[in-house]
Amino acid sequence: MKSKQVLSVEQMKHLQELGLDTSDGSMCWCYALSYKNAKWELEIYEDVINQKRDSAFWEIIPTYTLQDIFDKLPCFIDTHVLTLQKLANSGTCLYMEPYSRSILNLTESKELINSAYKMLCWCIKNGYVEKEGK
Prior knowledge:
By secondary structure, this protein is of the alpha+beta class. The protein contains four helices and seven strands, in the order H-E-E-H-E-H-E-E-E-E-H. The strands form two sheets. A four-stranded antiparallel β-sheet has the order 4-5-6-7. It has a three-stranded antiparallel β-sheet with strand order 2-1-3.
């Protein structure tokens, strides 16, 4: 089974609703507004910007790769360290204090990118990641 490479349109819209500026995504979802049977297509964001696609014809939503999410997450929250684990059947993202092993927050999902996404949402909601305009 191929692993998920980017966040979905719905996940990106949720991050935007939380107030995150998502314009720095590496990839983007493009939807041709004028086509009856159009589907979301994944593109490299820089290529789309360079082509200057007209917003009257295209809906464009930047999206994050796993690396993009890692770049957003803080490495430390107080004395807790960001830790990522890919196990056989799941991915885990957690902030753990290395000596006492106390856990500040833990997210888990079948795909590591979904676990990292959940952690990013938690960090935004708790003020550990800056929102747009702050």
